[in-house]
Amino acid sequence: MKVWVALGALILVILTINYAGALFSDCPKHVYGTADKKIKYFSSPLCVACWAQKPILEKVSAENNVSFEEYDADFCREAAAPHYIRGVPSFIINDTVVYGLQTEEELKRLI
Question: Whole-model pTM?
């Protein structure tokens, strides 16, 4: 019984740490790049594909004249709802929703 209580407490601590930043931050939570052309990027703190996407966003924004506004799909619902965002990672590029992990080449093609 003690093992289950300890495991539950550990899961609670991990979730609190992952979501604490989202609870106290504004939307968007992070912006990659400083260009005028902005692309909305929706992620979640527990999404492993989103973690893999971040270095690609940094590289593409540095090489191209584009910036990515990262929104937490769980807590920035006012940004996600009008576009019917149903999964992460997802992008809004030219008013089109693109779902899934995108490679550097694919992002450059979509931009």
Answer: 0.74
